[in-house]
Write a structure and sequence with these properties.
This protein has about 400 residues and is α/β, with parallel strands linked by helices. It has 12 helices and 11 strands.
Length: about 400
């Protein structure tokens, strides 16, 4: 609107001033010409120069008016990479929280998701890729109009056993990061790491400069100082902080690279129990989500019988929630370092998250954070993803 008003005002000035300037120039050249020149030619000469000036100004202001309009909205930049070790479809002790996280990330992230790589962890490397493809194909069949990111099979073993990248998952992740080096104005990459960070560590070890294009890593892992490496639940069975325990060398490589990490500690998932009774209401009429709810019943029984809990923890779902629904989370700055923690088999490596000393200088761009769900429940994350997906 304001561009149109500006054009009209300048056009009026051009009519008043541009023609006048041209006429004065024509008259001046006519008076200095030899006698016998008719005044009509002088006037025509002046009008011609004035109209030329007017047309030039009008054309210029048309360009100004057009450029003043809002630029078309650019397409969403695919700036998120997801790395996961899904176990849905595996043995009774293979958890399903990665698959809830993949669903949440795909629904909430939309076109921001550039790709998915898989990694060993909950299951073998080949099973992780198979389960990821099977699960995402079910979601895609239920929502055929929504773009499905490519899934790449990643590492099948820890970094110490195979230090060099060799899988398609590592190659795809490396290409994703290298693309940001070519477009520095894009703002950098965000990595949602739902399993051991082995794929990321190998591509950073291969080319350390890739760390500079990573805006943030979000992952499940870490624990406070002094805590046992084994996590007690209701005084019953204990479990490790597996994403770190499965490949501690990879975690050390990522920390050394200096990338900023948001940690969702394993303990942060306790108390937000998922079970079939709670989920069935939310997944009614959603065949893929109903299937995952049914598959998760074996994992639920494992937790009920072994830990005396009312369901299973949402674990990696919280990491996806932190990325795509950050307003529901509370985070505090921490320092992160590899440390040794006691376990029933002796000291074992783990990731220690400690608050920075009060006198320590702040470095907001590189400081790690420990985060927890502060508003709502894990079921609210699933509900939001379901509603977002169905609205598209």
């Amino acid at each position: 609107m304001w561009g149109v008003v500006l054009f009209e005002a300048v056009l009026l000035n051009a009519v008043r001033g541009g023609v006048g300037v041209g006429m004065r120039a024509g008259l001046s050249s006519g008076l200095s010409a030899a006698s016998g020149v008719r005044w009509g030619s002088v006037v025509r000469h002046g009008l011609s120069k004035g109209l030329s000036t007017l047309l030039a100004l009008a054309l210029a202001m048309t360009v100004v008016a057009v450029s003043a309009q809002p630029a078309p909205r650019s397409a969403t930049v695919p700036d998120v990479w997801v790395d996961a070790d899904p176990g849905c479809g595996g043995a009774f002790y293979a958890d399903v929280d990665d698959c809830w996280a993949l669903f949440h990330a795909w629904a909430m992230g939309g076109e921001r998701i550039a790709g998915i790589s898989t990694v060993f962890g909950n299951v073998s490397g080949s099973d992780a890729a198979r389960f990821a493809r099977g699960w995402m194909q079910q979601l895609s069949a239920a929502h055929p109009l929504k773009k499905m990111p490519a899934i790449h099979e990643g590492r099948a073993q820890a970094l110490v056993n195979a230090p060099h990248p060799s899988s398609s998952g590592e190659a795809a992740l490396a290409a994703f990061l290298d693309g940001f080096a070519l477009t520095p104005a894009s703002g950098g990459a965000t990595l949602l790491m739902l399993g051991p960070v082995s794929n990321l560590a190998s591509v950073l070890q291969q080319k350390p400069a890739r760390a500079t294009v990573i805006r943030r890593v979000i992952m499940l892992g870490g624990q406070p100082p002094g805590m046992s490496h084994w996590l007690a639940v209701n005084g019953r069975l204990r479990m490790r902080d597996y994403n770190v325990f499965k490949d501690p060398q990879a975690m050390a490589v990522v920390l050394k690279a200096g990338v900023a990490i948001d940690f969702v500690p394993v303990q942060a998932a306790f108390g937000y129990w998922l079970n079939a009774d709670r989920l069935r209401t939310e997944v009614s009429g959603q065949p893929a989500l109903q299937w995952l709810t049914d598959v998760g019943m074996a994992w639920e029984r494992f937790w009920r019988w072994g830990f005396a809990t009312p369901g299973y923890p949402p674990f990696d779902l919280l990491a996806s929630g932190l990325l795509f629904q950050p307003e529901r989370f509370f985070c505090t700055e921490v320092n992160a370092r590899m440390a040794m923690f006691p376990s029933i088999t002796g000291d074992a490596p783990g990731l220690e998250l400690a608050p920075p000393a009060p006198s320590q200088p702040r470095a907001a761009d590189s400081r790690h954070r420990r985060c927890r769900l502060a508003s709502g429940d894990a079921v609210d994350l699933i509900r939001a993803a379901r509603d977002t997906l169905n609205a598209r």
